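Figure 3 (text version): structure tokens given as input.
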């Protein structure tokens, strides 16, 4: 889904940047006197894909049966059910209990359709937006959802929100509950749809429920929600149970028909991924999205797959990706010189890892925005050169002329050429090899490097990299920590290098400030993991945010991508352009799949006939 979800601020899709009231078709919008547009759906560019007479999404089965239960596995742990604040680890599944003002379509990257809001109104200059709330919208305790609850949400985000969550609402100048069912936002921007789309993804926090609780603190009390599920059981750090709300107020709305079919969804938490897979094979977990190539290639050679009790299938994944990489911590003096960062990147032998560990299943990442139209490829285009030329004295000269390509090897695992190039760069940067150890020429300080990891499966992928680093005299090692400690160390920027997979929210918007902006580099808990402080990137981020059309936005973002790449802030890893799905054969699902989603668990259901066969 494409509307931003505060419950999932690390997964949210940022929406925005559409010019002119004519962007909505006559079926979906009505331009009234004074240039005010009223609509039930919005999009950033072009027109919404679906009209207001839509009965249901085309990728659902409106006759899908309700009932049944599933058990899912989740990696790591949780110690809080408050997803708004920086403190604590919260479960990503908590979004099941929340409704938004508007929701996205699974067939679009940038759309918002009415849910709690039945319509919106905004002027031609996009300086404000009014959401008209459905009077029947209510929380699980029966209390009506009002505009004041959304005001409370914004108050909470501004006062206590995590830095990355706050970044989505930087352009919000103010908000006001005009009455119980009319909510108004004003913006610092003009002629820019992006901030309007961002606030469309807000979920309401019940002010009446939180009045007797402290929202600035962690909690393990199930929060009051408004969505299709309520949280009914909590075993801290171990399991969560959600149950479908039988009298869910929005069940018959077109955006919900055929969805939320499961009566009960249980999440069991595992700190060991291998143990979680064994639980799946034993029938204790019903569905998993596989993320390890070795296991996908060899781990499913088991009887339940052979006889059809477990279904294993791969499907194309069309979703734009964020970069997965080992990020340098530029706050550490030893990584300040870009030649050091480039040298370390030369020692990552993807081809050998692909051959020996990845079963040839992955593609090397060559952009901070892979699998999308927003990432650079090939030499810079004339449009990109024009954008970068004003900064030519502040960027590596290659940025204006060459395609950035990750270093390559022959895949043998013995890349002497790359090692020689790396040592040459390191020596130019003031390091020397002495008695097999890399030391700082002027101080004699050894080059020590720790790679921080949270998933046990990453150890085998990282080990060849560590070995190559050691071969040039760097004292490299891996440190595997639990997910809670990992998050704390990320928040505190307490690492040398860290393996991180960032989310990408197409089209790019204000969240880029939190990822790469200078101001975020020193903010604890920000998404600027590397600590990038580059005025050129700051300027390009603002150009991305203020782009007046999609093509300009794409060209500007690609230009920024090139600056990020040629500064060697990370060592890009790899990505998979398929979804690897495995599940016990007890499910039914629609014949049509959404372009950008597998649909699980939202549009799937338990097929009682198949479930009975499994029991036999």
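Below: residues designed for each position.
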């Amino acid at each position: 889904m494409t509307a931003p979800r505060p419950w999932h601020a690390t997964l949210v899709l940022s929406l925005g940047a559409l010019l002119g009231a004519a962007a909505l078709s006559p079926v979906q919008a009505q331009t009234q006197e004074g240039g005010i547009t009223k609509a039930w759906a919005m999009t950033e560019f072009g027109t919404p894909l679906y009209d207001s007479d839509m009965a249901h999404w085309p990728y659902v089965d409106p006759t899908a049966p309700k009932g049944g239960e599933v058990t899912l596995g989740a990696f790591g742990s949780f110690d809080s059910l408050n997803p708004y604040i920086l403190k604590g680890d919260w479960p990503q599944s908590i979004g099941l209990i929340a409704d938004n003002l508007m929701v996205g379509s699974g067939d679009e990257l940038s759309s918002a359709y009415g849910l709690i809001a039945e319509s919106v109104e905004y002027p031609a200059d996009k300086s404000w937006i009014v959401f008209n709330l459905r009077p029947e919208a209510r929380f699980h305790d029966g209390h009506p959802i009002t505009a004041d609850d959304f005001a409370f949400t914004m108050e909470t985000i501004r006062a206590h929100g995590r830095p990355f969550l706050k970044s989505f609402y930087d352009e919000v100048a103010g908000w006001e509950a005009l009455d119980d069912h009319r909510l108004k936002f004003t913006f610092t921007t003009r002629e820019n749809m992006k901030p309007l789309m961002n606030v469309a993804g807000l979920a309401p926090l019940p002010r009446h429920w939180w009045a007797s609780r402290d929202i600035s603190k962690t909690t393990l009390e199930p929060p009051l929600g408004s969505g299709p599920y309520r949280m009914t059981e909590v075993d801290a750090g171990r399991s969560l149970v959600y149950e479908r709300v039988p009298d869910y107020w929005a069940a018959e709305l077109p955006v919900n028909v055929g969805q939320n079919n499961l009566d009960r969804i249980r999440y069991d938490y595992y700190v060991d991924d291998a143990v979680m897979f064994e639980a799946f094979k034993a029938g204790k977990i019903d569905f998993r999205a596989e993320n390890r190539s070795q296991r996908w290639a060899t781990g499913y050679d088991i009887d339940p797959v052979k006889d059809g009790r477990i279904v294993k299938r791969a499907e194309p994944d069309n979703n734009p990706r964020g970069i997965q990489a080992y990020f340098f911590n530029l706050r550490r003096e030893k990584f300040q010189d870009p030649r050091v960062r480039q040298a370390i990147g030369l020692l990552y032998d993807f081809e050998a890892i692909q051959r020996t560990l990845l079963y040839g299943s992955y593609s090397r990442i060559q952009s901070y925005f892979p699998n999308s139209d927003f990432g650079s490829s090939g030499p810079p285009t004339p449009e990109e050169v024009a954008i970068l030329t004003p900064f030519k004295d502040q960027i590596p000269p290659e940025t204006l002329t060459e395609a950035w390509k990750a270093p390559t090897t022959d895949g043998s695992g013995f890349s002497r050429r790359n090692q020689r190039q790396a040592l040459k760069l390191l020596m130019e940067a003031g390091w020397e090899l002495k008695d097999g150890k890399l030391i700082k020429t002027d101080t004699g300080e050894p080059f020590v490097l720790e790679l921080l990891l949270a998933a046990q499966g990453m150890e085998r992928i990282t080990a060849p990299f560590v070995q190559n680093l050691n071969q040039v005299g760097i004292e490299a090692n891996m440190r595997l920590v639990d997910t809670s400690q990992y998050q704390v160390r990320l928040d505190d920027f307490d690492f040398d290098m860290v393996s991180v997979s960032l989310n990408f929210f197409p089209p790019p918007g204000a969240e880029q400030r939190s990822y790469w902006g200078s101001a975020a580099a020193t903010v604890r808990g920000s998404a600027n993991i590397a600590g990038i402080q580059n005025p050129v990137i700051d300027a390009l981020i603002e150009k991305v945010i203020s782009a007046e059309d999609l093509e300009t936005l794409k060209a500007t973002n690609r230009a920024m991508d090139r600056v990020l790449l040629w500064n060697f802030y990370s060592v890009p890893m790899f990505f998979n352009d398929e979804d690897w799905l495995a599940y016990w054969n007890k499910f039914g699902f629609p014949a049509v799949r959404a372009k950008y989603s597998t649909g699980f668990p939202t549009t799937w259901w338990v097929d009682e006939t198949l479930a009975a066969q499994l029991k036999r």
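The CA atoms of residues 71 and 266 lie 5 Å apart.
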